[in-house]
Design a protein that fits this description.
Elements: E1 4-9, E2 12-18, E3 24-34, H1 40-50, H2 60-69, E4 74-82, E5 85-95, H3 106-119, H4 130-149, H5 151-163, H6 177-180, H7 185-198, E6 200-207, H8 211-221, E7 245-250, E8 256-263, H9 273-285, H10 290-298, E9 302-310, E10 315-322, H11 327-342, H12 348-366, H13 369-381, H14 388-396, H15 400-408, E11 411-419
Length: about 425
């Protein structure tokens, strides 16, 4: 279904996906390193500094003007965490030059631009430009602060912090607010050199491209010294199951946020992964799920109620917005839906509908170059490789017994409730 060819060029894994499906050609550069407190904020800042200028285009304005000259090419950066890895992404999209009246070598220019962003950034005296670093530090503070202002995102962040206390996964990919001020242009440049020397590097090229031409372009522009091969560490640190923790936090909010975290004890690497995906879809992943219907629709207890998986860490998180007075009722009904899943209390129709939604969702994701890369990158983060056709076939083959087996492995870990300053119905006090 997806013809991905992977070739190592020095320390860079080059993934070529030749297709005429898109009108654009897309280049995606990914750098992966372990999540760590001492580097997380440096990594959160670095890609934004890199996209702010090169030696030839030493400002955001100059760089954006050049992108416009490339028939409106786009440049984006992103930060995510998958399992306990911190991933930086730089993506360039350019028009397929075959559709242009002039045969401008756009793909070649896009390769050169990415190489310049990575290896010839705008510098001042052998370090990053202080004005650019300070400007991006201000923007980073705003991105971190935005999570505190968005109570839905804040509650999810706080659940993860409490649930994964002492584990790398507790760290936010956007870094720590208190560490931003201490970053200097010199210190960030030293970290940039270290990241290029130590990170796992992957380059995806998607579009109307030939593998040989891609590899030639990479060899010409992405010359990096080989590095010793390291053992692939597991993406998961497992905390022993202890007592269920309940955390109640009070702020000046009108709507309560009830977020519940479970350990699934299943990750992308495990045989039960497809069954877990199906379990989540029936439990809370989609609009036909038990949480949506029973907590939101029937009981009218929640403004929203849904669940999502972190496939490389083995977490399931329930998110709901409720009236503070409905805390105990909402918890009880959510618990009942989980128990129903463990009891196999779901219909064949729910199974079939969920399989269809998962299949459609996957196919829709593959319809965009960005989505295609994200699906394929699971196979880099994990030691297990799952081709797309296997993913679809594996989902179709999941049985009721498989779903119940996956449900039985799910363990309640942490309950987090963000509520207003007044007491809840049971008079609980906050932290």
């Amino acid at each position: 279904m997806v013809d991905e060819k992977v070739t190592a060029v020095g320390p860079v894994r080059v993934h070529t996906i030749s297709t005429d499906k898109y009108k654009t050609n897309t280049i995606v550069w990914k750098m992966k390193a372990p999540l760590a407190k001492e580097t997380v904020t440096l990594r959160a800042l670095l890609p934004y500094v890199l996209q702010s200028g090169t030696a030839d285009y030493p400002s955001v304005k100059a760089l954006r003007t050049y992108l416009d000259e490339l028939y409106g090419a786009t440049l984006n950066v992103d930060l995510t965490k998958k399992g306990e890895h911190h991933i930086m992404t730089i993506r360039i999209d350019v028009a397929n030059e075959r559709f242009l009246p002039e045969q401008t070598p756009l793909l070649s220019k896009a390769f050169q631009l990415l190489a310049d962003l990575l290896f010839r950034p705008a510098l001042d005296g052998g370090r990053f430009v202080t004005d650019i670093v300070e400007q991006e530090k201000r923007a980073l503070r705003q991105r971190i602060q935005a999570v505190y202002d968005d109570k839905m995102r804040y509650a999810n962040m706080r659940l993860v912090e409490e649930m994964c206390k002492g584990e790398p996964y507790a760290l936010s990919p956007n870094g720590e607010l208190e560490d931003v001020d201490g970053i200097t242009a010199e210190g960030l440049y030293r970290y940039y050199e270290r990241a290029l020397a130590e990170d796992e590097l992957d380059l995806y090229v998607i579009g109307d491209v030939a593998e040989e031409a891609v590899l030639t372009a990479v060899k010409q522009r992405f010359s990096l010294p080989d590095r010793p091969k390291r053992e692939r560490a597991s993406s998961v640190s497992v905390k022993p199951q202890g007592e269920v923790r309940e955390v109640i936090e009070r702020q000046d909010v009108k709507q309560g946020k009830l977020n519940i975290g479970y350990r699934t004890n299943v990750t992308y690497e495990d045989d039960d992964y497809y069954a877990l995906q199906l379990f989540n879809g029936i439990f809370g992943g989609f609009s036909h799920s038990k949480l949506f219907i029973n907590v939101r629709e029937k009981a009218s207890l929640a403004y929203y109620a849904a669940s999502r998986l972190e496939s490389h860490k083995g977490l399931l998180m329930v998110m709901s917005g409720i009236e503070p007075a409905n805390y105990e009722k909402a918890r009880r009904i959510i618990d009942e839906q989980m128990q129903a899943m463990k009891n196999g209390d779901f219909t064949d129709e729910e199974m079939a509908q969920t399989k269809a939604v998962i299949r459609n969702q996957l196919l829709e994701t593959l319809d965009t170059p960005r989505g295609l890369v994200e699906v394929l990158y699971h196979n880099v983060v994990s030691t297990r490789k799952r081709p797309i056709d296997e993913w679809i076939a594996g989902t179709d083959q999941v049985t009721r017994e498989d779903v119940v087996r996956a449900a039985d492995k799910v363990e309640l870990d942490t309950v987090y409730f963000l509520t207003g300053m007044e007491a809840t119905e049971d008079g609980k006090t906050g932290v």
